[in-house]
Amino acid sequence: MTADDWGLLFLHVPKTGGTALSARLEAALPAMERSPLMLPQELAAADMARIRGWRLVQGHLLHAQLQQLRQLSPRRWIVVTCLRDPVEHFISHFLHIKRSPDHDWHQALRDCSLARVVADPLWSRRLGSYQASFLLEALLDGAEPRQPEQMPDCLDRCDLVGTTADLEGLWLAISAVTGWSPGVGRVPAHNAAPEAQRAAELGSDLDPALLRDIAAAGAIDAALYRQVAARQQLQQACLAAQLGLPSRVGDSQILAAALDARLCAQGPVPLAALLPRP
After folding, report:
1. Of all helices (H) and strands (E), which one includes residue 34?
2. 37-51, pLDDT tens digit by residue?
3. Dihedral angle at the C-alpha atoms of 194, 198, 201, 204, nearest 10 degrees?
4. Cα gap 161→277, rounded to integer Å
5. How far apart (Å, rounded) are the C-alpha atoms in residues 81 and 247?
């Protein structure tokens, strides 16, 4: 593929560190070639001529918007997403909802403790399986999953995946297939509440028993997260092989330096080379 043939579609699952990755992506392209971080209604209202000029589209997008994008733009869209540890995501998402008066769930949860939400069957399921449900709606237009074994393998619709714990690894995979300079240093955190603020908001709520209950509520997300983490490890091993490095090289600075040299000498890594199947 030439640069004019493809575009990058970053499917941003809320509260997974996507704003940090988005900042790195935006720095790689001029403004006219990238969208802002969008909500579904914002893409629906966007000017068609602008959409056709974008090579980066990113946001909390659902299936209808992805279909609209593919109809309006002839590019081959490389779909990228990342997930977060389910227990961390549950807590972070809950606190975000309580802090955000414009969130659809704020009125229902603003006066609730974390323990009360975990004990509520409806809300524990909504927050516990949020990441899986989001991807199902975006990629398969599916209903909320009930059991891990009932969850369709929506990861087959994603070209590159990663975890919040290794955003640098995901960024390097993106850099490899796009040819964008990998740069140096960690992907900086954005929208992360300081630990002191988080502790104050949770109070005495967080105890081992509650964490176990949150983990149980997140069984569906946990199954998907394990798949994503395994896929990302294979992606990194494939990238290392393309760069002539050991498959388990863990230093992102070494990978970035080798990738930079590869991009200068040979150009991007073929996407197919980073599409492992466990």
Report:
1. strand 34-38
2. 787 778 777 777 788
3. -140
4. 12
5. 23
